[in-house]
Amino acid sequence: MAALVPQARPEPATGLILSGDPVLSGTWTEMALLANYLRGTGASLFPACFPEDPVAKTTTGTYRFRVKPRDSAIERIWILWISATVSGASVIIRAPASSGTPSASLSVGTDPDVPNTIYYTETLGAKSGTEAEVTIDVQGSTQDVVVNAIECYEQTRPILTLDTTDYGVDLVTLRPRGPIYDVANATPAGVMDSYDNADARRVGGLAWVVDSATPVTSSTSTFAGWGSLLALDMPVIGRVIFQGQTGMTWTWSVYAKVDAGATGEVEIIDGNGDNLDTITVTSTAAFAWVTASTFSTDAEDLSLADGIRGGAWQDGTVINARMRRATGTAGSVHLAGLCCWDANTS
């Protein structure tokens, strides 16, 4: 048996569940469908980022992202926007980088304003909710190309398994006049187990990534001399988990390295340019993800139609980033990725 994942989000009539009243099978069936929907619907691992990164013919650009996936996903869908510098170009896509199944050779047009949209399905070897790196290769097979944008989301599943990994609920056990008993993946007890293990995260908040062969490099020891990483401040607004919550903590990391003798600093800043958190980069051997840190933004306001706290984007709901070589050190800092995600699975 398997647990059905509905295509549309159910709306259970929770007002009919009252202490002391009879158990209503129809209501509990709707609750089970909603539980399966929560467990089976894929999340955005990171929203679209726009590297505008060139990949020369016969070479491969590798793009590395840091995420904390949901533990029920079995496939990832990558979407890439790619354009060519001259006609006759084609690309080959592979995820994970190096080891994934290569796509067929895909033709790419030359209009950067209307880039080709390419979908690639990555089948996962195992389910995992552990923070990890996800990667994809873009190989320019015949001519130079430009990777205009990349995004990735988890594929929504049509069914879940009846186990303690998926926490799917068997709808048959919620039929009228059926027995109520405490067993995994069945009856109201299975419904509550599924809710208890639900992961309601949106997962990805922001991603900026380029190939490590073409990183952003800074040798200045002042932030003002380097400027912001992103051309525009990016909106990032957290979800509400608890009643009365007004802010949310995000986790973030950078994929970077420094020259020998140098120390790098990367800051997350708010819309007013104020520091929210700093990550120090010391790796000199090769690019690496730095130990993750955290920063806070506003959480959404569920009393407002658009959810934006205060009714407008402001310092607490937009972020940017900047980097520099630490004062008193020599050399340069090189940055090839910055990702932030929601790590709170409660």
Description:
- The chain has helices at residues 25-40, 187-196, 223-226; strands at residues 2-4, 44-49, 53-55, 60-67, 75-84, 89-94, 106-108, 116-123, 132-140, 145-154, 159-161, 204-209, 216-218, 234-235, 247-258, 264-270, 275-281, 288-289, 293-298, 318-325, 333-341.
- The chain has three domains: 2-42 and 162-196, no CATH class; 44-154, Galactose-binding domain-like (Jelly Rolls), CATH 2.60.120.260; 215-341, Jelly Rolls.
- Strands 12, 13, 15, 18, 19 and 21 form a six-stranded antiparallel sheet that branches. Strands 2, 3, 5, 8 and 10 form a five-stranded antiparallel sheet that branches. A four-stranded antiparallel sheet has the order 4-9-6-7, with no helix packed on it.
- It has three helices and 21 strands.
- The mean pLDDT is 91.
- The radius of gyration is 23 Å and the shape is globular.
- The chain is mainly beta.
Number of discrete domains = 3
CATH architecture of the largest domain: Sandwich
Q: CATH class of the largest domain, please?
A: Mainly Beta
Largest sheet: 6 strands, antiparallel
Distance between the termini: 28 Å
Measured as a percent range, the helix fraction is: under 10%
Q: Based on helices, strands and strand pairing, what is the structural class?
A: mainly beta
- Topology, number of strands: 21
> What is the CA-based Rg, rounded?
23 Å
CATH topology of the largest domain: Jelly Rolls
- SSE string: EHEEEEEEEEEEHEEHEEEEEEEE
The shape, in one word, is globular
Uncertain spans, ≥5 residues at pLDDT below 50?
Answer: none
Mean pLDDT: 91
Strand content: 35-45%
